[in-house]
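Box 3.1 A note on notation
Throughout this textbook, protein chains are presented in two layers. The first layer is the amino acid sequence; the second is a token string describing backbone geometry. Keep the layers aligned when reading.
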Amino acid sequence: MYLNAAGQPTIVLNSLKSSFELLERRAIKYSDRPRFIMLQEIISQGLLFALMGYGDRWVPIMVSGNEIIRLIAMPLYSCSWRRMRRATHEALTKRVVQNYHPLQTKEATILTSSLLSPSASLNLEKHFHRLAASTVLSILYDYPTLKSIHDPTLEKIEEYMLRTSHAAIPGTYFVDIFPWMMYIPERSGILSIISHCVC
């Protein structure tokens, strides 16, 4: 049975046989990830690899500025899932990963020395956040090592992660329930409703 509730398509499979046929035997054709409009299309601009849809589809992305999402008539398009997967695979082969060992050793040394300080127990979680962020930034972007847990770059990353984890909760934003809301023009003043929580 197919339902379209205010623009949100829903398919209900009410028999084990049809569920098995579609989700197991035809998994390549029907497998995909759920659509997170706020998280994937608005906040991450279609570039969050973990939430990209499978296949060669091109994902529409939004252009943001000044804390307000501006929807444009012709959206930009990000890379397809297959292209992102290919690039990720090339960067994470067994041979390439060995080149990251010296960098990981350096980051582990910085973490160990920071954990030995008397105030480390107060910000234990932040020290591990610094390690993860610094390692990823150094490998992907050749960014200099983040040596402090109060680094502005780290604070921006933590703020982004907080926003994405909040947006990942189902039903948090109206736009995930009513996809047509993403087409409301900014000048109407109603666009701010999209960012208000349902709960």
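The longest helix spans residues 124-141. The first strand starts at residue 2 and ends at 5.
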